[in-house]
Write a structure and sequence with these properties.
The complex is a heterodimer of chains A (267) and B (247). By secondary structure, chain A is mainly alpha-helical. Chain A contains 13 helices and no strands. In chain A, helix 1 runs antiparallel to helix 2, helix 7 packs parallel to helix 10 and helix 7 packs across helix 12. With 247 residues, chain B is an all-alpha fold. Helices cover 85% and strands 0% of the residues of chain B. In chain B, helix 4 packs antiparallel against helix 7 and helix 7 runs antiparallel to helix 10. The longest helix of chain B is centred in the first third of the chain and has 40 residues. Chain B starts with a helix and ends with a helix. The mean pLDDT of chain B is 86. Classes of the chains: A mainly alpha (267), B mainly alpha (247).
Chain lengths: 267, 247
């Protein structure tokens, strides 16, 4: 009974978030376009599904992934646990002793990105627009790998205390170099995927991980060091998606004697 | 009706597949690394069912509503040929969807605490509320401006890499003069603006616009709006912090 009550609260909350957008879209359609929306009933039914779907999704996460993920982030960054699992001989913990944290960060970054609804939306659209050249699954795996690597590296940064700007600047140098050589059609999509990943599912978990780490490592402040992970999670998917585009071109070049780069740019 | 049910069933199966990696990761870490019992397995199972159903419903509704309406409006506006309404639409869409964003409310409240700790504003409730509201307005404004610039780029056919990389160079420059306590908040706000409902709409807007303009390619010109929406909040919030410090 509680569950039904709580679920309806979440659905109401999601309606509260989505309705202003719906009102704006319809107002624009009526006042500026001055035409009736084609398939009005379908669209209305679709909005009901979006609202109910988001409500159920968030309610479900609140009961499963968020508490479990936060708890696990706490347990894995607990100094007692870290000392028990250490690799180094004695004395203060060194960066290598946090290996479970790196693994967990990579695994959580990867798997939560695969479940990110906004990324699914972009992949579906990119697949449709590219005429199948960009795979729905391929793009999502590419982004997920980027987030996994990014979050893991971000944890390394918190542990070692190296400056955030150095990593981000180095990352953007790589992005610039890749932009020069990558196929043109993948570039805008790659840039977009940086923003798409940091959404509903991934952010709460990696924030919890960052805060846990910043508290566990001596000399780090949660306020100053906890936030960097989101920046890593937005940067590395750009690199991995550009690489995905470069790989696709290479593979095509290997299959056929004449590289089809021009065709890829046209479609 | 029948086709709809089949599509919904397929979406549910896909959701199940999409969520499997998370279940595996959590399961493996719980069993092999943490090795502590988990309470409330029933509640977890019900929650997991809700997640699968919710994801399937969302993706189903996305195809029925968000994509068609976003693209339909982009096509109609392009046919209407009025740049003014196109820019207005882009700006209001960005501003309107961001100002009410729950993640932004949380970040703004948190940021006002940081500002009090750093001594940037007075430790009164009123000063904090003003600061948080100011921050929300700045971020919403920045997303509106981002979509406006992005739509302008599609119309003018300017180079996306040059604009985005130029933008990040600006971010780096402003970071050096901005007060230290705003930097974290600024970089965070770039991540919170692109919500689950906004992303599909904005993507559909860009793709719809690029595909209805002659000489544009939906793939290489239609994407890129979200890239602007993650960049401008950082820049605007850094500037906001810098200006507040000067006053």
């Amino acid at each position: 009974m509680d569950l039904i009550l709580e679920t309806s609260k979440f659905v109401a909350g999601s309606a509260f978030d989505v309705l202003p957008i719906v009102v704006f879209l319809f107002a624009f359609q009526i006042l500026v376009i001055r035409g009736r929306l084609p398939n009005l009933r379908r669209v209305l039914v679709g909005f009901v599904f979006v609202i109910v779907g988001l409500g159920l999704f968030l309610e479900g996460l609140e009961h499963t992934l968020f508490p479990l993920g936060r708890l696990m982030a706490q347990q894995l960054t607990d100094p007692d646990f870290l000392r028990e699992m250490r690799l180094s001989a004695a004395g203060a913990l060194v960066w290598r002793d946090f290996y479970w944290v790196y693994l967990f960060a990579a695994a959580v970054g990867f798997s939560t990105t695969l479940a990110e609804p906004a990324l699914m939306a972009v992949s579906i659209k990119a697949n449709e627009v590219s005429g199948g050249a960009v795979g729905v699954w391929g793009l999502r795996v590419a982004v997920a790998i980027g987030v996994g690597v990014g979050v893991s590296l971000g944890c390394y940064r918190i542990i070692t205390g190296l400056p955030l700007q150095h990593f981000i600047a180095a990352g953007y140098v790589v992005v610039i170099a890749q932009t020069v050589v990558a196929p043109k059609m993948i570039i805008p999509l790659a840039y977009d995927s940086g923003g798409v990943t940091t959404s509903t599912v991934t952010v709460p978990l990696i924030t919890a991980l960052g805060l846990g780490l910043a508290e566990a490592v001596p000399g780090r402040s949660p306020l100053l060091d906890g936030f960097g992970l989101v920046a890593f999670a937005s940067l590395f998917p750009i690199i991995s998606v550009l690489a995905y585009g470069q790989l696709a071109v290479l593979r095509q070049g290997a299959d056929k004697p004449v590289p089809k780069k021009a065709e890829l740019q046209e479609e | 009706m029948k086709n709809g049910l089949i599509a919904l069933g397929r979406d549910a199966l896909f959701s199940l597949r999409d969520l499997l990696p998370i279940v595996l990761v959590i399961g493996v870490f719980q069993v092999f690394v943490i090795r502590q019992p988990v309470d409330g397995l029933l509640s977890l199972a019900i929650g997991a069912l809700l997640v699968v159903a919710g994801l399937a419903f969302f993706i189903f509704g996305l195809r029925l509503a968000l994509f068609p309406i976003g693209e339909g409006l982009a096509h109609s506006l392009a046919r209407k040929g009025s740049a003014f309404w196109l820019f207005t639409f882009a700006f209001v869409l960005g501003f309107g969807t961001t100002i009410a964003e729950p993640a932004l409310l949380a970040v703004a409240a948190e940021a006002s605490e940081v500002a009090v700790d750093a001594g940037a504003i007075a430790a009164t409730e009123e000063a904090q509320a003003n600061y948080a509201l100011g921050l929300r307005l700045v971020v919403a404004l920045s997303v509106g401006v981002a979509l406006l610039i992005g739509v302008f780029r599609i119309l003018a056919n300017w180079s996306l890499p040059v604009m985005i990389i130029g933008g990040y160079v600006l971010v780096v420059l402003v970071t050096t003069i901005a007060p230290a306590e705003i930097v974290g908040v600024a970089y965070d706000s770039g991540g919170v603006t692109t919500s689950t409902v906004t992303v599909p709409l904005v993507t559909a807007l860009g793709v719809g616009l690029a595909s209805s303009l002659k000489g544009r390619n939906a793939m290489s010109d239609g994407f890129g709006l979200i890239a602007f929406a993650s960049l401008t909040p950082i820049l605007f919030v850094l500037l906001y912090g810098t200006v507040l410090e000067w006053i």
